[in-house]
Amino acid sequence: MWTITGFADEVADDFEEQLALMTELGVRFIEFRSAWGVRVLDLPDAQLRLAKQMLDDAGICVSALGTDLGKVRMDDDFTVHLDRAHRAADVAWFLETSEVRGFSFYPPTGEDPAMYRKQVIDRLGRMATIVDQAGARYLHENEKGIYGDTPERCADLAAHLDPHTFRLILDPANYVQCGVRPFDEAYPLVRSATVYVHIKDATFPDGTVRPAGQGDAQIPEILHALHNDGFDGYLSVEPHLGAVDAFGALSGSGPWRTAHEALIDVLRAEDAEWA
């Protein structure tokens, strides 16, 4: 059975508004990226405690921390970033989640990403080891522009890092924005390491984001294949149907509903079970 979760911060900055819509829609998990306009790793301890109490009161759990780990340049100070990984471990433990979303660094503009392969693997391994101390895994998202934005490099990272501490998120729309057909070209390479899926669609050639099943990201094909092989992970609604902001996008409650309904339509067509 699949479990629906999502980036509730696309509903509103206010955490109470986020949880209210999740409750209305029956979504019992969130991918916690920000609250009150503050990134989850930057929330003061008092606000973090308040967020945990609000989550508990609403009966909503955290499927993953939507952190910005690894979303920095290769020539940025990595020592500072390791401190952020330690913070992620602490927050993951406090919010009782076993998954930490992260990235794989931006190579310098114009340089061949392959030059940085060894360094990227080393850095990811160190961060994954840190979050593992809190019983969490580092889940790598294939975002455009980072080292791991192609299925070949994502598969290579997964093959060379400890599978107990490092796995992959499959974001079909992000592959479209890199000129990759997600099911035909990416899925065969990354499926074995994929444990979590972001649900947003996108169109060729401009990468415009659309609700699930309304673009070129081959989401029905991907979900059909996942259904057939018994995938039982999270499907995370990431609408991106509003203005892009520092966290991703502020879509609002209406577009969030639209994105959620589009996913449900695809699941119904697949005759899949979800929670």
TrEMBL record:
Transmembrane segments: none
Pfam families recorded: AP_endonuc_2
Keyword S-adenosyl-L-methionine appears in the UniProt entry: no
GO molecular function, one term: isomerase activity
Domain Xylose isomerase-like TIM barrel residue range list: 20-241
Keyword entries, A-Z: Isomerase
InterPro entries on file: IolE/XylAMocC-like, Xyl_isomerase-like_sf, Xyl_isomerase-like_TIM-brl
PANTHER family listed in its UniProt record: HYDROXYPYRUVATE ISOMERASE, INOSOSE DEHYDRATASE
Name by which UniProt lists this protein: Sugar phosphate isomerase/epimerase
Organism placement in taxonomy: Bacteria, Bacillati, Actinomycetota, Actinomycetes, Propionibacteriales
